[in-house]
Amino acid sequence: VLYLYLQGAIKAFAEKQLLADSANTAYMESVSTLQDKYNAAIALYGDGTQFDDNTDIDAALTGLVSPADDAKITILNEIKAARTVKATLQIALDTANAELASGQILVNDAQTAYDNA
């Protein structure tokens, strides 16, 4: 019975590992996408203006007037959307890692019970 419990814990842990790996991949892709948006904005402005995670995008949008500033408005709104995606995926990654940690505890407990039987 303890062997079956251990095997179940190992299987559940492996599934959680796959989810954590997937969450990490998605998060890292969102980081890359966001950096690409920052680089696009920097290139669009072309005047040395820098964009990063600390840039207040709402402030950058202030004073932009369509249609002359449509490209800037578009990229800044894309940055805001990419930041939202990144934040959401960060939460998913944190959750997956917490589940993975709890899965490791279950495996450890099952292994200890099996070893002590």
Give the key terms:
single chain; 117 residues; mainly alpha; 3 helices; 0% strand; rod-shaped
Task: Work out the oligomeric state of the chains in this entry.
Answer: single chain
| SSE ordering | HHH
N- to C-terminal distance: 10 Å
Mean pLDDT: 97
Helix content: over 70%
How many helices? Answer: 3
Main β-sheet: number of strands, strand sense, barrel status? none
Query: What's the β-strand tally?
Result: 0
**Over the alpha carbons, how many angstroms does the gyration radius reach?**
22 Å
Secondary-structure-based class equals: mainly alpha
Bulk shape: rod-shaped
Low-confidence stretches: none
Instruction: Report the β-strand fraction as a percent range.
Output: under 5%
Layout of SSEs?
Elements: H1 2-45, H2 57-61, H3 70-116
Question: In words, what does this structure look like?
Answer:
This protein has 117 residues and is an all-alpha fold. Helix content is 82%, strand content 0%. The chain is built from 3 helices and no strands. Helix 1 (2-45) packs antiparallel against helix 3. It is rod-shaped, with a radius of gyration of 22 Å.
Short structural description:
The chain is built from 3 helices and no strands. It is mainly alpha-helical.
